[in-house]
């Protein structure tokens, strides 16, 4: 934990504002931030995810000291940005502001309903500035997908890295994938649009495949670990993963589409029942 606190201090040292301003940026009381830095209080998973986002780093780096460190969650592959993300921290802040705005607008309105001018208005800047960082509209959609992958990865590492029991971790993974109101529902909206566009855009298919592989591998390694722990059935882990991820996708789409009888609560129960019936060793 001392190494984690030091890396948070490193993030603060690079931040262009004060420690109080950083605390406000991540929605944390400055006193709580100070206590966490001195070790009298632990950072929560949600706080680690917000620190990583504000600091332009990953939760994996904060916890383990490396973006590529082996953890309970599969590491994203091929995540190099296609936009002109700057190295300068102040310009990087503008880039992130644009990406945040585009991500939210696309999630709420739909990719084809969002114009570059809308993103510029949301950021209080010009369309030329948007085009500087993201030359085309397709770049915006591509980066929103990468951003969603990074958000999910950071959230999963923060929430799951300390859960040793594979059964508990798998149920937590299911919970993190439910389209509950707020961030997760917006992420689902992005994924639905990416699925649609991927059917027509071969370049996006490659990125989508890489991104989905990370999620698939996270489920598969959790199931295999549960089998090693003796808590999961010996049924082929790959087959169980294919079925579970397909069930999550199908139910999630039905929830977002507002199909009668398909609520988040119903989705949670169906998925937990499947885990208990088909994956957990009786």
UniProtKB/TrEMBL annotation:
A Pfam family assignment: TetR_C_6
DNA-binding region positions on the chain: 115-134
Sections of the chain in a coiled coil: none
Limits of the HTH cro/C1-type domain: 18-62
InterPro entries from the UniProt entry: BetI_C, Cro/C1-type_HTH, Homeodomain-like_sf, HTH-type_TetR-like_transc_reg, HTH_TetR, Lambda_DNA-bd_dom_sf, Tet_transcr_reg_TetR-rel_C_sf
SMART domains associated with the record: HTH_XRE
Protein name: TetR family transcriptional regulator C-terminal domain-containing protein
């Amino acid at each position: 934990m001392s190494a984690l606190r030091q890396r948070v201090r490193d993030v603060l040292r690079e931040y262009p504002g004060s420690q109080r301003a950083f605390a406000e940026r991540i929605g944390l009381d400055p006193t709580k931030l100070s206590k966490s830095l001195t070790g009298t209080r632990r950072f929560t998973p949600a706080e680690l995810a917000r620190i990583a986002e504000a600091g332009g780093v990953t939760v994996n780096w904060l916890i383990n000291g490396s973006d590529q460190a082996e953890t309970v969650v599969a590491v994203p592959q091929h995540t190099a940005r296609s936009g002109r993300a700057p190295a300068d921290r102040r310009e990087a802040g503008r880039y992130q502001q644009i990406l945040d705005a585009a991500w939210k607008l696309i999630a709420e309105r739909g990719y084809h309903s969002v114009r570059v001018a809308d993103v510029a208005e949301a950021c209080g800047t010009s369309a030329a500035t948007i085009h500087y960082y993201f030359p085309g509209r397709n770049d915006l959609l591509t980066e929103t997908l990468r951003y969603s992958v990074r958000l999910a990865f950071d959230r999963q590492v923060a929430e799951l890295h300390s859960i040793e029991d594979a059964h508990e971790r798998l149920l937590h993974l299911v919970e993190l994938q439910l389209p509950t109101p707020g961030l997760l529902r917006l992420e689902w909206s992005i994924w639905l649009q990416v699925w649609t566009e991927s059917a027509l855009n071969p370049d996006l298919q490659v990125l989508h495949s890489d991104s989905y592989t990370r999620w698939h591998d996270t489920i598969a390694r959790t199931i295999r670990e549960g089998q090693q722990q003796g808590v999961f059935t010996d049924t082929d882990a790959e087959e169980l993963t294919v079925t579970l991820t397909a069930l999550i996708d199908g139910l999630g789409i039905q929830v977002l589409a507002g199909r009668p009888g398909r609520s988040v609560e119903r989705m949670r129960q169906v998925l937990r029942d499947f885990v208990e019936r088909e994956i957990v060793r009786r």
